[in-house]
């Protein structure tokens, strides 16, 4: 099972995520308490091994700005977390993760039609687009048949991620606030979350 640690903003937390087996790391370039400067990410990215995917999170940004930051920071994947339409996603020259807030089966039907290689299913938006620490109803996913690779986010943490994985087997799980203490990335929580996910799926096999 793959794990993405999102909302990273310093080299120490990035190292903890990579060292403990994260498959992807996320940098937020949108307005957020976790927003990070592209120049800082450029420096951090130099120390990230190629097998760990670097994801840039954007909300309703112009394509030109996304391209500029993606090339500067050597991103691997673009995460669109706003109201970007299908045509906009098709115009992006990187693999795309499109985030959707899920509160009903109708929301999942909208997901199916979207032209993205990956979809991130999250709780409905709060103050920010994601990273709000709340879950959606995972039972909705048990009858869903989505064509894209599914990433699940929203309120995940060490003590509830196993409950999710007992219900569904997504392509990846994504955590941000669930590995924080007092709003800062907690290196021990990062370690324990990744270990929990990896051990849970090994046990299922």
UniProtKB/TrEMBL annotation:
<feature type="domain" description="N-(5'phosphoribosyl) anthranilate isomerase (PRAI)">
    <location>
        <begin position="3"/>
        <end position="195"/>
    </location>
</feature>
<keyword id="KW-0413">Isomerase</keyword>
<dbReference type="Pfam" id="PF00697">
    <property type="entry name" value="PRAI"/>
</dbReference>
<dbReference type="InterPro" id="IPR001240">
    <property type="entry name" value="PRAI_dom"/>
</dbReference>
<keyword id="KW-0822">Tryptophan biosynthesis</keyword>
<dbReference type="InterPro" id="IPR011060">
    <property type="entry name" value="RibuloseP-bd_barrel"/>
</dbReference>
<keyword id="KW-0057">Aromatic amino acid biosynthesis</keyword>
<dbReference type="InterPro" id="IPR044643">
    <property type="entry name" value="TrpF_fam"/>
</dbReference>
<comment type="pathway">
    <text>Amino-acid biosynthesis; L-tryptophan biosynthesis; L-tryptophan from chorismate: step 3/5.</text>
</comment>
<comment type="similarity">
    <text>Belongs to the TrpF family.</text>
</comment>
<dbReference type="GO" id="GO:0000162">
    <property type="term" value="P:L-tryptophan biosynthetic process"/>
</dbReference>
<protein>
    <recommendedName>
        <fullName>N-(5'-phosphoribosyl)anthranilate isomerase</fullName>
        <ecNumber>5.3.1.24</ecNumber>
    </recommendedName>
</protein>
<dbReference type="GO" id="GO:0004640">
    <property type="term" value="F:phosphoribosylanthranilate isomerase activity"/>
</dbReference>
<keyword id="KW-0028">Amino-acid biosynthesis</keyword>
<dbReference type="InterPro" id="IPR013785">
    <property type="entry name" value="Aldolase_TIM"/>
</dbReference>
